[in-house]
Design goal:
The complex is a heterodimer of chains A (about 425) and B (about 240). With about 425 residues, chain A is α+β, with helices and mostly antiparallel strands. Chain A folds into two domains: about 1-55 and about 260-410, no CATH class; about 70-245, no CATH class. Chain A has helices at about 5-15, 20-60, 70, 80-90, 125-130, 130-135, 155-160, 195-200, 205-215, 230-240, 250-255, 255-295, 295-305, 310-345, 375-400, 405-410; strands at about 60-65, 95-110, 115-120, 140, 150-155, 170-175, 180-190, 205, 220-225, 245-250, 350, 360, 365, 370. In chain A, the strands form three sheets. Chain A has a six-stranded mixed barrel with strand order 2-3-8-5-7-6. A two-stranded antiparallel sheet of chain A has the order 11-14. Chain A has a two-stranded antiparallel sheet with strand order 12-13. Chain B has about 240 residues and is α/β, with parallel strands linked by helices. Chain B has one domain: Rossmann fold, CATH 3.40.50.300. Chain B contains seven helices and ten strands. Chain B has helices at about 50-60, 80-90, 110-120, 125-135, 150-165, 180-200, 210; strands spanning about 10-20, 25-35, 40-45, 65-70, 75, 95, 170-175, 200-205, 215-220, 225-230. In chain B, α3 (about 110-120) runs parallel beside α5 (about 150-165), α4 (about 125-135) crosses α5 and α5 runs parallel beside α6. The chains are: A alpha+beta (about 425), B alpha/beta (about 240). The interface between A and B is medium-sized, with 27 and 31 residues. The structure holds adenosine-5'-triphosphate and magnesium ion. Magnesium ion (MG) binds next to α1 of chain B.
Chain lengths: ~425, ~240
């Protein structure tokens, strides 16, 4: 600092002289920044939950596919070296669950009724663990069992369209590479997810059946659900190291670009909200600081008359701002931290605001929201409060240094 | 210290100052030509609105001349940058204003020290501040804040601050305006002594006849012009205008 000890005394005593105003400024800054903090905590929590919902609804955080799949989205493409891949996938760092699948488009028929369906061949245990749509839905009957043959689980909507019940046998036609295959499938479970859109997408058979019916061995994808999205790069690196070169690892963003765009625009919106809050706070601080400076016009005139330089006057006013900013950060942390903590531990039930259908774009979203809470809040509170006060005080400080001594001393003389 | 020499500290040639407010032009100074030499004890007198404060502000580089030529400490003030003017005020000039002189949050000693700190004085700063307070008989008040002192004491602190920085010229705008006769006398006695003993040049404005009596030279302003410029007999040979 370019300020000497007397100047520092001057600055600190100026703050304590108007202690009520100083405290009010700190509280105002603090509450404003707390709002921004809560918005950020809310946003961070909301985004995490969305991504988790997407990952658990089938996409996975990351997914291994044949290297041509991202371009062609061809169902018949198969992973290379499935055996060796399966041997290492369980060791992926931060892995929670993984699901091995093969897809085929087909037509289901019962009596005179038919319905098109996207049929998925799965490893039942893994699928149940990795897929929240199965876990959260109401299942009539049961889910598939390992090594079971000729069984199918379908969604409620599909069941209605076909007018079928448990134990009915469906005639399924599946498209293979260049041909068409058919099989009889017995309905062992009907899943009601609460969402028509999601229900329509459920038509599961075992992976072995899928291989058998279509005549194509192997699996089309392995989707991995990680503990946190941020570990994607690490997990991807592990997989890439061991897998054959014909496979590739993509993220849920590449699997589902339109959802990614949605999440990004949500993020941008929340950031904008936080920014607006911060700008409003900054304007408030600016006006308070400007008033304080104008009130002390004569003092700044005297400082300038005595020979204090512009930079020194600016530093002195900024010094006061730094103290207010620090106080504001403490308040922001207290208020914003408690609200964020509440949001993070108790969450908020959103079911009142939403209709019952939580399915959107093949993803089962949550009817509640948890904010994020962590040490990062301290850094954010400090950064936001300091940056806001310092930025908002630049103009008033400059204004203080521009006071014309002759004018100001005359009017107060 | 500085002896009375013929060194010219202030040189004004046909200085005018016009204030513009809402399309109305006020001619505060209408052609001032004069010089102030080192060692003077000069009073500027004149009726209210005659331009005393305006003249002191111009000499103090607190305001800009409208027309004419003004040299302070050998520098053309109009040509100086804001920073240079601040430097001149800090290192070569001392100020005593009519009111609002001291920073209320600082003690008497800190008020004096502040200027030394701005000057970059690091050695013996406290001693120098206390010495200046001592010269004005204020040592007992060193730790008081302005609100805990009388008006006369406050003005003396202002003078102590003005001289502590060892300026060549002290400008005082109605330093005794808010003081009663006794306090005005004490203040002027001390200023006079600093002038005589330490050779500090004083230029001060006043209305007060008792204060005028202390001056060795009296410039009377009327309507922004020098009406009379009188050097008193005793000093007449030493100081010429
Ligand atoms: N900033 C300003 N804007 C407009 N007019 C001004 C300004 N400052 C001074 N004046 C005018 O200039 C003239 C001279 O004013 P100045 O303050 O120098 O007088 P003064 O001799 O110091 O008076 P006083 O004895 O009352 O202090 C006055 O008419 C005043 O109204
Ligand atoms: Mg005046």
């Amino acid at each position: 600092m370019r300020l000497g000890s007397v100047a520092l005394k001057y600055a600190t005593r100026s703050l304590t002289r108007h202690s009520r105003r100083t405290i009010l400024s700190m509280v105002g800054t603090g509450i404003g920044c707390a709002m921004a903090l809560v918005a950020l905590s809310w946003m961070d929590g909301a985004i995490r939950m969305q991504v988790r919902a997407i990952a658990e609804s089938g996409a996975g955080h990351i997914r291994m596919v044949h290297r041509n799949w991202p371009e062609t989205q061809e169902d018949t493409l198969r992973l290379q070296g499935l055996e060796e891949v399966l041997a290492t996938v369980a060791e992926t760092p931060h892995l929670e669950h993984y699901s091995v699948r093969a897809h085929a488009k087909g037509l289901l028929a019962f009596g005179t009724r038919t319905a098109p369906a996207a049929i998925t061949g799965v490893l039942p245990k893994h699928e149940m663990a990795a897929n929240r749509i199965l876990r959260r839905g109401a299942l009539e009957g049961r889910y598939l069992e390992e090594d079971e043959e000729g069984a199918v689980v379908i969604g409620r909507t599909l069941a209605r369209r076909l007018d079928v019940m448990l134990d009915d046998a469906l005639y399924a036609t599946l498209s293979g590479k260049d041909d068409i295959h058919s099989a009889m499938l017995r309905i062992v479970g009907i899943l009601d997810t609460g969402s028509q859109e999601l229900d329509l997408a459920v038509c599961h058979i075992t992976l072995a059946d899928m291989q058998e019916i279509t005549g194509i061995p192997g699996a089309g994808e392995i989707s991995l659900v990680l503990s946190e999205e941020r570990h994607s790069a690490e997990a991807k690196a592990h997989l890439t190291e061991t897998m054959p070169a014909d496979n590739t690892v993509i993220t849920w963003r590449e699997v589902n670009p339109s959802l990614a765009a949605n999440v990004d625009s949500d993020t941008a919106f929340m950031r904008l909200m936080a920014l607006i809050v911060i700008v409003v706070v900054a304007l408030g601080i600016m006006s308070a600081q400007l008033t304080a400076v104008l009130e002390r016009r004569a003092e700044f005139a005297m400082l300038s008359a005595l020979g204090m330089k512009t930079r020194q006057i600016v530093s002195m006013v900024m010094m006061e701002a730094v103290v207010i900013g620090l106080g504001g950060a403490v308040v922001a942390l207290g208020v914003g931290g408690s609200v964020s903590y509440y949001l993070a531990t108790r969450g908020m039930d959103l079911s009142r605001w939403l209709d019952d259908d939580l399915g959107f774009a093949d993803v089962l979203f949550d009817p509640y929201l948890y904010g994020s809470f962590g040490v990062w809040l301290i850094g954010y509170a400090l950064a936001i409060a300091m940056a806001t006060t310092i930025f908002a005080t630049l103009y008033p400080a400059w204004k203080a240094a521009q006071v014309m001594p002759a004018d100001a001393l005359r009017t107060t003389g | 210290m500085t002896a009375t020499t013929d060194e010219v500290l202030v040189k004004a040639q046909n200085v005018t100052k016009v204030y513009h407010t809402d399309e109305v032009a006020t001619h505060a100074l209408r052609g001032i030509t004069t010089e102030v030499t080192a060692g003077e004890f000069l009073a500027i007198v004149g009726p209210s609105g005659s331009g005393k404060t305006t003249l002191l502000n111009l000499i103090g580089a607190l305001d800009a001349v409208t027309d004419g030529h003004l040299e302070v400490m050998g520098h053309n003030v109009a040509r100086m940058s804001k920073r240079q003017r601040a430097d001149m005020r800090l290192n070569q000039l001392g100020f005593v204003f009519q009111a609002y002189n001291l920073f209320p949050v600082l003690t008497a000693q800190e008020n004096v020290e502040f200027v030394l700190e701005l000057q970059g004085v690091t050695d013996n700063r406290t001693e120098r501040a206390r010495e200046a307070l001592d010269q004005l008989g204020l040592l007992d008040f060193a730790d008081r804040r302005p609100t805990q002192m009388s008006g006369g004491q406050q003005q003396r602190v202002a003078v102590a601050r003005a001289i502590a920085s060892r300026p060549r010229l002290v400008l005082a705008d109605e330093p005794s305006a808010n003081l009663d006769g006794e306090n005005a006398r004490i203040l002027l006695d001390m200023m006079h002594e600093l002038n005589e003993q330490a050779g500090i040049t004083f230029v001060f404005s006043t209305h007060d006849p008792r204060v005028i009596a202390y001056a060795r030279r009296v410039i009377t302003l009327v309507d922004g012009k020098i009406d009379t410029d009188v050097v008193k007999e005793r000093e007449a040979m030493a100081e010429q205008t």
